[in-house]
Specification:
about 200 residues; mainly alpha; Arc Repressor Mutant, subunit A; 2 domains; about 0% strand
Length: about 200
């Protein structure tokens, strides 16, 4: 059982990760500074270094923290989801949209890093987030393969379908983000699923 001091430190670190996420969501890694994060967190730069010895480690911890939150929510939602692969894909899409609506500052980070991962760029962060992206892509790909097998989707390459799902969800999130008042999760997911299942043609 953790001590009170350990719990307080963990809570403080969570607050700092959120502040770092806000900074990295607004600026690319190379432009963001530790001072930017310290200012956002209302902490001294020395205090920040007590938690994170470098900017790179802080960025990695932000990505891994929010990836862990998403993974836990996805696991819980899918555990109660129907067996239909399309319905399960819809449930996963809701988790995806809800996550980025609740912490929108992580979306630019995710998009930047996902593009680098998708194209195989060997960046300084690849070894840390490769497992995260591989796990989530595999989850989506498996659902799509099931959907193709049962005739719910056209028999297209699973990797192509996986990329399509991710990009359509991102497009729907982008649209929702710029709407006022803010769009709820349901319509955002419904628009993406409609495009995925029926396309955008008139025939």
């Amino acid at each position: 059982m953790s001590s009170r001091k350990e719990r307080e430190r963990a809570k403080r670190q969570e607050v700092l990760l959120e502040a770092a996420g806000l900074v990295f969501g607004r600026k690319p890694f190379d432009e963001a500074t530790m001072q930017d994060v310290a200012t956002a967190a209302e902490i001294s730069i020395q205090g920040l270094y007590e938690f994170f010895p470098s900017k790179q480690e802080m960025y990695e911890q932000v990505m891994l923290y929010y990836a862990g939150v998403f993974h836990d929510h996805a696991q819980a939602a899918l555990a109660e989801a129907p067996e239909s692969p399309i319905e399960r894909l819809n449930v996963l899409a809701r988790v995806y949209v809800k996550h980025f609506q609740e912490v929108p500052f992580t979306l630019p980070m995710f998009v930047r890093d996902r593009v680098q991962f998708d194209f195989g760029f060997d960046t300084r962060f690849r070894r840390h987030y490769q497992e995260v992206y591989e796990t989530e892509r595999h989850r989506v790909t498996s659902l799509l393969q099931e959907a193709v097998a049962c005739g719910a989707l056209r028999s297209l390459d699973p990797e192509f379908l996986t990329q399509l799902v991710m990009d359509v969800l991102q497009a729907s999130l982008h649209f929702a983000y710029h709407r006022s008042p803010r769009e709820e999760v349901g319509p955002c997911v419904a628009r993406a699923m409609e495009c995925l299942l029926h396309g955008i043609g008139t025939e």
